[in-house]
Structure formats: C-alpha cells, structure tokens
Amino acid sequence: MAKQTPFYSKHLEHKGRMVDFADHWLPVQFKGIIPEHSRVRTTVGVFDVSHMGRVQVHGKDAMNFIDYITTNDVPGLAEFQVQYSTFTVPDGGIVDDLLVYRMPEFVYLVINGACREEDLKWVMSNLKGDVKIIDKTFDTAQLAIQGPKAENVMQKICDIDLSKIGFYWAAYAKVAGIDMLISRTGYTGEDGFEIYCENKYAEKIWDAVFDAGKEFDIEPIGLGARDTLRLEMKYCLYGNDITLKTNPLEAGLSFVVRLNKTNNFIGQEALLKAKAEGLKRKLIGFEMQDNSIPRRDYNILANGNIIGKVTSGTIAPSLQKGIGMGYVATEFAASGTEIEIDIRNKMCKAKVVKTPFYKFGTRKKRRYNGRYINTTGIKIY
Length: 381
Prior knowledge:
Structural class: alpha+beta
Distance between the termini: 25 Å
Largest sheet: 6 strands, mixed
CATH class of the largest domain: Alpha Beta
C-alpha cells in the first residue's frame, strides 16, 4: 500500500491530484503542468520530495566506504559540500544516481525513492570497514523550494545568510525556528534549496514557507511539472535515461566518474575499458522540427534505420516544442544530426541539439566564501 508523506494533508488542502509514485501518494499536479512549470521558471514553487531515500553512513571508514561504492571523489569533499554521483555494478551499469553530503558527523546519502530498498540491499551487500548504515527515510521530511525567488522566500525564515551558500553546498540552520539541514540543490535548473527536518515539523515548515512566499505567488508543484522542468535541463531520470543497462560515460555523466581516483570503486575497471575502447553509443538530446511530441520507447531512426529509442520525451513548456532524450550509436550523436522519431507510424523530423534545452535557468554556481559549522550542537535527522 502506498505511504503518505508528512505533507499529504497539505496536498489535499491544495486540491492536488494524487497518484501512487515510488510507493508514496504524491500530487501529479495542482493547477496544471504548464502553469506549475511556469511558476518555477518565473518566481517560486514547492515540491514534496519526501519519497526520496535519506541514509546516514557513520563510522571511521564511512568516507572510504562511500568512495568505494560511488564513482565520484568523496574524500575531495569539504565538510558541508554536496556532490552528484552514481552507484555502479562491476560491469559499469548504474544502480542509481544520488547526492552525497559530507557532514561533520557522517556521510549523508539522498537516493531515489523508487530505488531505496534495492539501493540499501546493494549498499549492505558491499559493506566493509567500520561503517554503520542508518535509514532515516521514514523519520524525515524533505521539501524543495525552487525558482528565481527561492532565496528571497527562504531568507525570510532562515537564520543564516543564504547568499553565502554556493551551489551544491549545505548548512545547518534554523528555518522558522526549527533546526534542520538546508542545501542549495535541486532538479529544475533554477536556483533553489532543499530542506530536511523531522516529520513532526513538516506541516509547520510548509506553512512558514508558503507564508513567506505569498508576495511571490508561491505555489505547490506536482510530479508532472517536475518531469518537464528536469527534462528541459536534460537531467537524467533513473529507470528511463539511466538504468543497470547503461553506464555513466555513455549517459553523459563522465563529470561524476573519477576514473583515476586513488581508491578503486566498483565498476571502475569496466568503465576504464569502455573509455579506452571508445563509447559505442551516447545519450543525446533532440528537438522535434514540427509540432509532434516524442514519448518514451518511440523508435529513433536515421536513413530509414532504427538507431535507438526515446528514453524521455515531452512538450517543453518553456520552448513550446517537443524535446526528448535517447541512446543512439555514437556516429549519430553529433549536434545538428538529422534524425526521425516514429510517432504512431509517422516519421517525424528531429535534430540532435546541444543541451540543456532550456538555457536561461537561474541556478547559481556561487563561490563558497565561508564554511558554516555546527555551533549549536543540533543534529541532522
């Protein structure tokens, strides 16, 4: 049976259309995908992402262990720094993508909700050293506040200077008087924050965020707009664009793969081999050249031959055109390559393009000019 997140009653209050997603009841939309998408691109919107898995990794070997099971460089993280990474199996296939937070007391992992149980089994099956895994998923709530006005909203109720938090950095703070973790992260291409707190404070935090955002027409945002926003940025979705049958190099995620790091990681040998031999396929982004809309599993063709399948596709509200992603043979991956998408037996013209599709996001890569430390003795839950 699907679970209710700590914000479930708030979704009903805002008349959200609820669906079972990743074994949780979540809103697919409120006012509609297009207006919700526009709200995030222009002012600020709020996403319930409490379905995501939240895992603490404790012990003196925690850093080295996470470095062993992820592809990015964990020891290179400073305290309160966050990184995007992947778990890979020995053949290089992707178990999941995730965020890794280096906290003073432990390493914090944020994983996909639909993959949580399998991820935890995989982590535990590779456990080594002085390491303790604590799953905090069902004790905590997670909220994403995204959009050009996100900082304006959150600064009203936060006791630290948010302008000093760089992209992919975090801090302990009081938000609406409640101790929690806040990070400058998100899945939309816009500036924004994700906050983590105990379940018992969830509704209070929701109300405080919405009160602070009234002057910016803040609104709740559903899964539908979350998907169109991430696709306009060519952000991968696990289960669609990345799976156990794809590796991070061909998925365009080489920036999270440190093939030369000191500690060997699971899948390193296979990925080194794949790079040395040359990638056979790549994940492309394409735009339709007419008014058609590509969808997952539609065939991609070139010169009358099937060269791949669409992994994600939609109409991009910000661009007013169909866009999509899919794996094709490397020879067809160059920007400008003309392809076709088989849409219900009609060959529709498309073109490979440089991504992100939407190039005007407000996501800020600020320099981090200071380090927030835990001066209050609070704990992250």
